[in-house]
Amino acid sequence: MSESPYPSSLDPSPEDSDDSESLLHFSTLSIEDRMRNGVIDVYPDVVEIFVDLNFPFDSYKDEQEAVDYKNITAMLYSTGQGNKAMKNILLSINLCPDTINLDYSLGFRSWILFSMSDYISALVDINRILRSKRGPADFVFQMNKQKTRCITEASTKLQDMTYFKHQQHRTITNPDVYNTTMYLIKLFRRKLKFRPDDIDINFNKSFRIPTIYSKNNLLPNASSKIKIARNVVKKRFVQAVTDISIGEVLIVEKPLVCMIYSNNVLTHCSHCFVRCTALIPCEVCSLMFCSEACYNEAKDRYHRFECRFFQHVEAQKLTVTIFKLIVLRLFLMATMDGTQLRNLMNDEVYGNPCSNKDFNYDEVYVPEDYFNIHNLEDNADKVTPDTWHAYSVQASFLLLCLKKMSFFDQLQAEQNENVLSELESYAGSLLLKFTLCIAVNVHEVVEYVDLPEIADKEHSVGIALYPTVRFANHSCDQNLLRFFHKNYIVVRSLRSISAGEELFDNYGTFYWNSTLKKRQSFFKKHYYFKCECIACEENWPLLTDLPFDFSVAPCLIPREEINMDQVREWAQKYSDLEPGFSNQTLAFYYMYLNFLYKTFQKPFKEQVLVRTVYNCYYHIVIFNFPQGK
């Protein structure tokens, strides 16, 4: 089971670093010269490579193609191929501009959702259609008729507690679905077998994002039981202020910036990452959102300008990695769509892209503050010349795209396509800086699902930068576990942690599934450090070679104090657990894992096995990710 925060998509492209002359030039430059002039040096070559790159105002949307997909959907649906019909209608909705044909496609999707017994999502689509008020009378009549059918069926289903629990993850995370559900509950409250007023008490408590019960005054997204500390050796690290019990919630955080993988655009909200069957499309580009609320928030925060970029990239079928896209999004957010670019360039501190200061440990940490964005860790002094060159090429490509899209028109009087102005050069240096920052600070966001169409229960949704979580250093035997709910990250303690002890994350490879040599090679390539954790220092064995016999395993307490019969009974219960997910099963894993860590000395095979299953169970049971029926 992978927990890597480092997506393979962040590797510099080999084709970006095959210019031996440029590499030789980069190797002679200082760090500051590479940051200031890296983009300037390679920009002419990038312009030559992409000489035909053009950004006309042609829309990604194609109404005729959308209609064609809708017609294919009708054919598939009529022959009972519901899943294929759904995939095609999603493509139709994604491609269709905001016209009456979009309403027709939404209407068709509502029929498919109805046939799948997803009445609430069907109602969401129907309500969107009726709000648009642009369909002909017969179409509106059919939608109102379908709405009545959905309400009738949904009211019957909502009386079933099992169905309601299955729907609960969506009623909490999706405003449109939640409002529709609550409307139905109030409409049919007399028929329901439970009181609507008790819904939050009976259901939401189990599925909502965990709460930090004692907030940190200086780290708003963290518990008061931890702090960011520093010393001469490690510089900056996360430390326990008081004793921490196993399973405690230590950090709950939304990303500073995130980006969805392209293969999830038709199944997940591009803003909050929730899996959704009733997505709505952006009016211009290919991104889709779970609700109007998410769409509007995305536009307010970052999507206003980048939308044009997405539109042109998709229209011209350009291959642009998620790495480039998230760098562009961070740049637009940090510079407020470029409006603050000149002020930053003229600033005494921010005008130097190489400036890097530590945050004030005695003040409240505000991730969105530009000071903290500018000072994200970038490892600029450790990056090899070939990687510098590759990242400079990627930053130059983004800068060229911004110029082609007239990004700088409102920011400066004159422009020359082949020559960079002072403002454009500064923008290029920021793009390069953020490229370096993203490469060493992002996590891969995963969800755990049990759906027929997904072979692996651990499904990668996108990548995200979490400002507080990034402070945790790596250990191959970490004492923290990361979980995801939508694009939120929740960090819990994996075992009991003593006051003063350092808290460790894991950057992607463990002592029990990778040899010491492979681990060190991975860390050197991606994070530019040598791991000196206890597992590496003592060269702990792989899982297959770990001790498994309770009777001979080294103990942390006197062996005579251990009830070995009880141990064997728990071990047998663990091996005999039936497949399936329940809070009772999760509670057993929690208790058993706590016992193993307190009783037996690491490394011990049973600790690794139970900890791995606990991680998967926690995602599915607590966060109620969608499961197959």
In short:
The protein has 629 residues and is mainly alpha-helical. 47% of the residues lie in helices and 8% in strands. It is globular and about 80 Å long.
Structure description:
The protein has helices at residues 20-27, 31-49, 63-78, 82-95, 100-115, 119-132, 137-157, 161-173, 175-187, 199-207, 292-315, 322-334, 341-346, 370-374, 385-404, 422-441, 516-526, 534-537, 564-576, 583-599, 605-622; strands at residues 226-229, 237-240, 249-253, 257-260, 280-281, 288-289, 442-448, 458-465, 473-474, 480-485, 488-493, 504-505. The chain is mainly alpha-helical. It folds into four domains: 8-54 and 259-443, no CATH class; 63-201, Serine Threonine Protein Phosphatase 5, Tetratricopeptide repeat, CATH 1.25.40; 212-255 and 466-507, Beta-clip-like (Beta Complex), CATH 2.170.270; 511-629, no CATH class. A three-stranded antiparallel β-sheet has the order 3-11-10, with helices on one face. Helix 5 runs antiparallel to helix 6 (119-132) and helix 5 runs parallel beside helix 7. The protein is globular and about 80 Å long. The model is unreliable at 13-17, 168-172, 193-207 and 623-629 (pLDDT under 50).
Features:
single chain, 629 residues, Serine Threonine Protein Phosphatase 5, Tetratricopeptide repeat, Beta-clip-like, three-stranded antiparallel beta sheet, 21 helices
Ends apart, CA distance between termini: 24 Å
The low-confidence runs, each spanning 5 or more residues with pLDDT under 50, are 13-17, 168-172, 193-207, 623-629
Annotation, overall tally of beta strands:
12
Q: Largest sheet, order of strands side by side?
A: 3-11-10
Number of helices: 21
Tell me the overall shape: globular
Helix content: 40-55%
How would a crystallographer describe the biggest sheet?
3 strands, antiparallel
Task: Indicate how many domains the architecture comprises.
Answer: 4
Class of secondary structure makeup: mainly alpha
User: What integer is the average pLDDT?
Assistant: 84
Q: What's the Cα radius of gyration?
A: 27 Å
Strand content: 5-15%
